[in-house]
Amino acid sequence: MKTSTKIVLVEDHPRYRKVIEMALQAEADFELVNMFGAAEVALRNLEKALPTEHPDIILLDLNLPGMNGLEAIPYFKTATPKTKIIILTQSDKQEDVLQAIRLGASGYLLKSSTVGQIKDGIQTVTTGGASLDGKIAQYILGELKQQPAKLEIEKPLSDRELEILTLLAEGLVKKEIGDKLGIAYGSVATYIRRIYEKLNVLNAPAAVNKAHRLGLFE
């Protein structure tokens, strides 16, 4: 039996909280289980909850009173390690994007995104992908490309793995990659898992970031 995706929203603006609440409540596949206006309150709630009560997704704003979203990510990862974090913020600052990815966020969406784009982003992360706002994806390709290679990896990526990583960097999800390359979804998932293992990263944004630092992209 298919279960709904449990979501916790950490957002301090009541009006925007209401927008997201209404959007998620309209989807049978999503269940908004709680909303908090501060990261500290959300953390206390999660620390007291049983593992079976932990959400699948945390939608996390960065500009919060008290502990900001970036500071909160490691604490959320410790309190509920299986929960995936999607940043939902107004900030498209370089340092915020990179830091969130390095800390383990599985997605980075801007509040200027449409409700449909936010829903799609949640669904993508739920099914094992990574969700990047289009503007952010282009930013990563444009800005990180300038960084010189400083790292090395023990096992080089194959031509197919590099091809798939390039498509991930362009914002494509697994199904889209499979359709574009004419290979099965399961094969794409296997390639992506190998890419993560070789680069020693946990998600697609981190893989793209490290690939740029390695100079793997032309």
Any key phrases for this structure?
alpha/beta, Rossmann fold, 2 domains, six-stranded parallel sheet, globular, 218 residues
Structure description:
The chain has helices at 14-25, 39-48, 69-79, 94-102, 115-126, 134-143, 159-169, 174-181, 185-199, 204-214, and strands spanning 5-10, 30-36, 57-60, 84-89, 107-110, 131-132. With 218 residues, it is α/β, with parallel strands linked by helices. The protein has two domains: 5-133, Rossmann fold; 147-214, Winged helix-like DNA-binding domain superfamily/Winged helix DNA-binding domain (Arc Repressor Mutant, subunit A, Orthogonal Bundle), CATH 1.10.10. Strands 2-1-3-4-5-6 form a six-stranded parallel β-sheet, with helices on both faces. Helix 4 links the parallel strand 4 and strand 5. Helix 7 (159-169) packs across helix 10 (204-214), helix 8 (174-181) packs across helix 9 (185-199) and helix 9 (185-199) packs across helix 10. It is globular. 39% of the residues are buried. The mean pLDDT is 86.
